[in-house]
Amino acid sequence: MNVFNKIISVTTKQEYDCTDITDQVKEMVNESQIKNGLVNVQTMHTTAAIILNENEPLLIEDIKSHLEKLSSKESSYNHDNFEIRTVNMCDGECANGHAHCKAILLPSTATLNLLDGKLQLGQWQRILFWELDRSRSREIQVHIFGE
Predict the structure, then answer these.
(1) 67-103 tens-digit pLDDT
(2) CA angle 111, 51, 105 (to 5 degrees)
(3) How many CB atoms lie under 10 A from the CB of residue 141?
(4) Rounded to 5 degrees, what are φ and ψ at 99?
(5) In this structure, are residues 118 and 42 in contact, taking their beta carbons and an 8 Å threshold?
């Protein structure tokens, strides 16, 4: 069995920034020279997601609206109360309870089949990295294994 790992670095522009990383993952598959196996794509962050879906602008807007209804920034979150929160604090801590609550609704990984050197995706499926918090640098780990 062969194993290949690589990191995709993304700088997001804003909350709900949706970055299509499909072509980068396909390039990594070619680079790996692995023909049959699995490709795992994982966000390294708790306020971001990896989803397989259509990259269609109106659908992207629908997903944003849906997520905002479920976990609005206007709601109150204990995570954002810095007077009582004492765990996992860092300099410049921001109020992002809404982003964490959105993240639990979406997957942090996508595992795809690799067959004859080709990533197995449906007609409209794309690998999308979703920012659920604010503009920042992000990392996505891609792990390819097989033969």
Answers:
(1) 999 999 999 999 999 999 989 988 888 899 999 999 9
(2) 110
(3) 14
(4) -70, -40
(5) no
d(CA 120, CA 137): 28
Distance of alpha carbon 141 from the chain centroid: 10
Q: Where are the beta strands (DSSP E) in the chain?
A: 2-11, 18-20, 37-43, 48-53, 109-115, 118-119, 126-131, 137-146
User: Could you give the CA distance from residue 42 to residue 50 in angstroms, rounded to a whole number?
Assistant: 7
Token readout for 56 is 């269609």
Give me the domains of the chain, ranges plus CATH numbers: 23-74+96-146 (2.60.120.460)
Angle value at C-alpha 70, between 65 and 72, nearest 5 degrees: 80
DSSP state of 15: T
Helix (H) or strand (E) holding 129: strand 126-131
What's the pLDDT at 45? Answer: 97
- DSSP summary character for residue 85: -
Q: What does the DSSP 8-state code read for residue 113?
A: E
Strands 126-131 and 18-20: antiparallel
- Stretch 118-137: mean pLDDT, rounded? 97
